[in-house]
Amino acid sequence: MRKFFAPLVLVTALVLSASAADTVIEEIVARINNTIITRNDLKKSEEQIQTEAKEKNIPPAEVQKKEADVLRDLIDQQLLVQKATDLGITGDTELIKKLDEIRKSMNLNTMEDLEKAAESQGVSYEDFKQNLRNGIVTQAVIGREVGSHIPMTAEETQKFYDEHKSELERPEQVSLSEILIAPVKPKPDAKENDPLPEPTPEELAAAEKKANDALAEIKKGAKFEDVAKKYSDGPTAAQGGELGDFRRGMLAKELEDRTFAMKK
Is the confidence at residue 13, as pLDDT, over 70? Predict the structure, then answer.
């Protein structure tokens, strides 16, 4: 992969000094264009390999191979992350979806609960998110830069599908997005379960106008996600109102009956 992207990779062993006393801050073990890999980065990756090995009972020989390749893998990842930046791939939307999937799988109510759960296990939440993001963007780059160059005819595609049909089947599901118009917003000092005050007639009228304005823009052809970012008061506004994918049985019956009957 390093050869494919023609990077400037310099493996080095520089030590940064904080003062005249030469206090060691961090040791740089590799420089990839404008990015560095430190000794601490190596240590974290090695610890992650050991943790994964214990959780999944990975054979010692495989663990040793992973540890031997850890620097090369970090360099490869940085090259792919840099290429993603060049291609404008951020992984923001996919990261939010992935974090929400993890939250749901752990039966947690909020993202704050997920952050607390990560930190309670001694994991930096920011490092956790960054590792997820790196994985998302590197896969996107591989798919775009490598997969797009693999020629495949329609006949080969159909043959692959026919041979792997059972593996490719997925339960029917819908992708939902929302625009939430809130007549009354919680006060800054309100607690999570505090009830909202009753809206005044003026607040209801303003909310209705806002909802109609949003609907009018959508009917004129505006993208739903853009309208959601502009108008929605919900927690999903920043990601264009995306709620995620839902299979049958995951939604309230009334909502399920209406959404699964809708056209795309």
Answer: no
